[in-house]
Write a structure and sequence with these properties.
This protein has twelve helices and five strands. It is α/β, with parallel strands linked by helices and 268 residues long. Helix 4 packs antiparallel against helix 5, helix 4 crosses helix 7 and helix 7 crosses helix 8.
């Protein structure tokens, strides 16, 4: 099996991580493309001593780490306006603690694997994750709307949201109900299932909501590969069903991290 064939199944999930890391589908997918270009340009440098997924993420992490200082150094040196832009971008960079949290809680890597990926010790990874969790506890509380037609899943999501200290504005089970609820009580975050009770789409519901006002959105789906192709406008934050509580917690905190750090982009 060729290296490309070995890496192909892992690309959708690398896109998920990259989007969560950057807070942007466009920027995240650009980093994934850069990773693939680097592998194609120098396949002999690809880590062969580890599992292909680990090697893929390790290559991505190297490109991510090397690109940040250069980008901000150049921008901040060119004037007040560019320095302001650089500072705004700097606010969007997920610190190492959040990288460790995303790698373990969202991507499912072990502490040892995450240590390999970010070139740290397992003890350092555990401390970084603990630091990220402490930051989450200090995060500004928000008001969350849930779009989910399965009662048990909706109850679980509601409990997770409340455990994080956020309020729940309500639970909608159809597209029309979701739009009406959002207009009635504007949320600061939306958790949206893809397939809803009346065969309507959570994606369409979110599009309707975003046409009225900007709000960060986390989609929940049993088929993440369908929304991680990199071929069209797709979600920035995505949770896979069945989900772990830690995954939902990490996704919520990351979506709000970017919402607090920057002015939300206009809906596409």
């Amino acid at each position: 099996m060729s290296l490309g064939q070995q890496l192909a199944p892992h690309l959708p999930f690398l896109r998920r991580y990259a989007r969560a890391l950057t807070g942007s589908q466009t920027e995240g997918d650009q980093y994934v493309r850069a990773t693939l270009e680097a592998i194609v340009a120098a396949p002999e440098e690809f880590p062969r001593e580890v599992d292909p997924r680990l090697g893929l993420y390790r290559t991505f992490q190297a490109i991510w780490a090397s690109s940040q200082p250069e980008a901000f150094g150049a921008a901040s040196a060119s004037g007040t306006e560019n320095e302001a832009i650089a500072q705004a971008r700097l606010a969007r960079i997920a610190p190492l603690s959040r990288q460790a949290l995303l790698l373990t809680a969202m991507e499912g890597f072990t502490t040892e694997d995450a240590a390999y990926l970010i070139e740290a010790s397992p003890d350092e990874v555990e401390e970084l994750v603990a630091e990220a969790l402490r930051e989450i506890e200090q995060q500004t509380r928000s008001r969350v709307m849930i779009i989910e037609d399965e009662p048990l899943i909706a109850m679980d999501l509601e409990q997770i949201v409340r455990d994080l200290g956020h309020d729940v504005t309500g639970v909608a089970v159809t597209r029309d109900e979701a739009v009406a609820l959002a207009m009635q009580d504007r949320p600061g975050l939306v958790l949206a299932d893809i397939q809803l009770a009346d065969d309507s789409s959570g994606i369409d519901a979110v599009k309707d909501i975003l046409s009225e006002f900007n709000v960060p959105v986390i989609f929940i789906t049993a088929f993440p590969e369908r929304l991680l192709t990199g071929e069209r406008p797709e979600p920035t934050f995505l949770i896979t069903k069945p989900f772990q509580r830690s995954t939902v917690k990490a996704a919520i905190s990351q979506a709000l991290f970017f919402d607090e750090a920057t002015v939300p982009e206009a809906a596409a």
